[in-house]
Design the sequence.
């Protein structure tokens, strides 16, 4: 059983790399951000809380994040292991996680802040079907329209320049110290997040001693 955590600043490609690991390793991909976005689309009580927090450019509180992670891992659909992204984001969350689960490796995707800004501010979302786009590498066929359902694309509420700067500051102040906690257990693998997606995936697999990615 393999249990991995992917960490990195917003826009570093955590979700994409996690999905590629999941594809041929039979891992469960657990994305805290995706879980919260699902709640927002389904208009649940949690979704209403998250929507208010995102609109203010703030981060979801520890209690709510831990509750969501505990519920998701409690489903036990990860017979061969899991890869989790978007968590933990601070010391308290890391301690909660390490107390409950043994981790085989933490994959840290390194990305300069300027590249983060370029990537994140180019993201678009279909509010109807949830499809994600990036105007740098994954433009829709019709400008401003979803390829799947034709709905008008929007910028996420938390992808404004102001909200991004707040999250960058929060990441450097709170999340980087989490990496140091994991480094003490010698499970952190630093990977350059700047190259093309498949190159990053191959680098991750090489450092973890996994079979090469074959697409």
Sequence:
């Amino acid at each position: 059983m393999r249990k991995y955590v992917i960490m990195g600043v917003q826009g570093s490609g955590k979700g994409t790399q996690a999905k590629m690991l999941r594809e041929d390793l039979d891992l469960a991909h657990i994305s805290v951000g995706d879980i919260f976005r699902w709640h927002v689309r389904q208009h649940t009580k949690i979704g209403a809380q998250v929507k208010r927090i995102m609109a203010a450019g703030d981060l979801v509180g520890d209690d709510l994040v831990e509750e969501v992670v505990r519920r998701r891992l409690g489903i036990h659909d990860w017979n061969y292991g899991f890869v989790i992204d978007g968590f933990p984001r601070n010391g308290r969350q890391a301690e909660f996680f390490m107390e409950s689960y043994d981790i085989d490796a933490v994959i840290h995707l390194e990305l300069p802040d300027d590249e983060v800004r370029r990537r994140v501010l180019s993201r678009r979302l279909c509010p109807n079907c949830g499809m994600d786009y990036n105007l740098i590498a994954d433009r829709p066929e019709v400008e401003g329209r979803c390829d799947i359902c034709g709905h008008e694309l929007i910028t996420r509420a938390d992808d404004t320049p102001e909200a991004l700067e707040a999250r960058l500051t929060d990441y450097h102040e709170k999340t980087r110290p989490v990496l140091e906690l994991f480094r003490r257990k010698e499970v952190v693998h630093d990977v350059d997040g700047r190259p093309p997606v498949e190159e990053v995936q191959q680098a991750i697999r090489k450092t973890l001693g996994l079979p090469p990615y074959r697409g």
About this structure: The chain is about 45% helix and 15% strand. The chain has a mean pLDDT of 89. Residues 2-112+160-208 form a domain with the Rossmann fold fold (CATH 3.40.50.300). The radius of gyration is 17 Å.
